[in-house]
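Slack export, channel: ligand-projects

TW: morning all. Re-posting the request from yesterday since it got buried. We need the structure predicted with the small molecule present, not the apo form. The ligand is H2B; the SMILES is in the block with the sequence. No rush, but it would help planning for next week.
GE: picking it up
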Amino acid sequence: MSDLSELKCEACQIDAPKVTEQEMVEFGQMIPEWTVENRDGINQLERVYKFKNFKLAMVFTNKLAELAEEEFHHPGILTEWGKVTVTWWSHSIKGLHKNDFIMAAKTDQLID
Ligand SMILES: C[C@H](O)[C@H](O)[C@H]1CNC2=NC(N)=NC(=O)C2=N1
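GE: finished. pasting the full token output, ligand included:
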């Protein structure tokens, strides 16, 4: 399996398959800093990034926004003083798609 961060998101159709349990383990091992959270029955990938201040948190947030637009796949983002919580899941299938693991890996690449 090539590095997830080098892959492109595929258009996520409403009938696209969620990742299997085995894929969750396999892909999850490639993004070890991320956790799987289940909210209202929807599995989501989540990671908290720490920064020295709010300005740096916003710089990262804006880079992430650009990435999301490039891939047309968008995260949940909570930007606070010194930290940004990023959450990836696929709204169209109310769960986790391979796209979400790809985007989590790409998000990690934004950190200098
Ligand atoms: C209309 C729909 O929102 C768009 O097709 C895209 C936009 N970005 C998206 N982002 C995420 N995370 N999941 C989606 O299903 C999704 N759909």
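GE: first-pass observations. The pocket of H2B is lined by residues 12, 72-74, 90-92 (CB under 6 Å). The chain has one domain: 19-108.
TW: perfect, thank you
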